[in-house]
Amino acid sequence: MYAFEYRRPATLEDACKALDSLAESKPLAGGMSIVPVMRQRLASPAALIDLGRIDALKGIEVPNGGLRIGAMTTHFAVSRSELVRSKIPALGQLAGGIGDPLVRNRGTIGGSLAHNDPAACYPASVLALDATIHTDRRDIGADDFIVGTFSTALAPTEIIVAVSFPPPDTAAYIKFINASSRFSIVGVFVARSGGTVRVGVTGAGHHAFRCRQLEATLMTAFDPQAARAVRLPADELISDINGSAAFRAHVIPELAARAVEHCMAGTSGAIV
Asked: What is the pTM (predicted TM-score) of this model?
């Protein structure tokens, strides 16, 4: 490690002031992403602004029938929330499958989205559920939030405050995990609202993305066999030690089909 300044403000206003006043400063949520990166000397912020004391960034609410989750709410809290399980059970399923108990008790939804790891689970959910990311400055739609690999629409000193999810009619998340890291080799989140179907995919590309081909197919026939019949090009998918791009192109429709099966059965998904 190297020397850096550490501050732990008690209010969002103070956190914003610290980020604006300290050059090359970074907000610190659960620390599950930025601390390992700093240890590997892949990042060297001059200051960390710890958001852990800011109660306004924590908690789960259901304003106007929707679901709003504070940015500093942990994965564990999301996975155990009765509000989440009553409104969007698949989101609770997703949160409960992230990492290990340490990660789930320290990691936060805001931190995960801000880091935007290509194999993280939450990015697929915000795309599939058409979520809105609220920051200290503005509201950002999910389709505009993810820009690239580890890259989002957030400005350098912008802080995620909360995420709002409109509850779908049905949804499910299927995650094919890397057994050691528990990140997604491929993860597919399917959500249906009225006649609209959105499919968020993670782990298969340079960042999470919507699979438009599957969406179009499932809007015509919300059926697992229809999903399995989709043939995806491998051109824009990634190859690594966990699988080739062609392998991922084959797995995405299969996981989407299983997600549809869970939707039809009234269940929230699975880890495979």
From this structure: 0.96
